[in-house]
Amino acid sequence: MYKLVLIRHGESQWNLENRFTGWHDVDLTETGVAQAVNAGKLLKDGGFEFDIAYTSVLLRAIKTLNLALEEMGQHYLAVERHWRLNERHYGALTGLDKAETAARHGEDQVKIWRRSFDVPPPAVELDSEHFPGHDRRYSHVDPAILPRAESLKLTIERVLPYWHDVIRPSIQSGKRVIIAAHGNSLRALVKYLDNMSDEAVLELNIPTGVPLVYELDAEFNPVSKQYLGDPEAIKAMMDAVAKQGKAK
Length: 248
Ligand code: DG2
Description:
Largest sheet: 6 strands, mixed
InterPro entries: His_Pase_superF_clade-1 (IPR013078), His_PPase_superfam (IPR029033), PG/BPGM_mutase_AS (IPR001345), Phosphogly_mut1 (IPR005952)
Bound molecules: (2R)-2,3-diphosphoglyceric acid
Oligomer: single chain
Strand order of the largest sheet: 3-2-4-1-5-6
Family: Belongs to the phosphoglycerate mutase family. BPG-dependent PGAM subfamily.
Subunit structure: Homodimer.
Pathway: Carbohydrate degradation; glycolysis; pyruvate from D-glyceraldehyde 3-phosphate: step 3/5
CATH class: Alpha Beta
CATH superfamily: Phosphoglycerate mutase-like
Structural class: alpha/beta
Order of helices and strands: EHHEHEHHHEHEEH
Shape: globular
Protein name: 2,3-bisphosphoglycerate-dependent phosphoglycerate mutase
């Protein structure tokens, strides 16, 4: 039996402002910092120990991981940061207000962009500031595989090679793993682990800064899955994420 902990970063500045974020690099808010520290407390109280941590190359996830590990007294852990764990690329929606976008294009269209399995948002042009090819942190990546917009399907296709090549073998070798990532890069992983249908994933919303603990059998089938913390508060956080796409 393996244990795996997933955590979405704490509230970011653009979560607070209700803007589509994707690969744009924003910091945590004060609430986000408190959520990350609280996640560390919950993990410490639960007796969790890790051998390696994986995260994206975006500040909000890196910082959440650091804060949680520090709170647990495990700040010395090896950390691997990889662009394949980045948030889904929100394309030309990046930076737009989610509620205003719903007022302009309709809530149904925004739900399709946010939660459908295979409909990507409109793509950014190659000369857009939001095309990752202009950012030196991706200079080692073939620009042809850098995204200009991603559906959940495309996100799964870029997260899974890292899961299969790096994270899964690391867990199989006996390492206890925590992954700090994003709403949709984690939806990608959860859909895969839970073998969730394309329809069911429409209603999957991951709260910020709450550890999600999986127990997996030898074949990596989930045996149990549980968020740490107060179930009612967590449910309210998930509902709030779903409502971000409603027109005001
Ligand atoms: C959010 C998720 O990503 O947004 O890109 O706006 O997890 O990095 O804050 P995160 C974004 P939704 O898909 O929930 O709208």
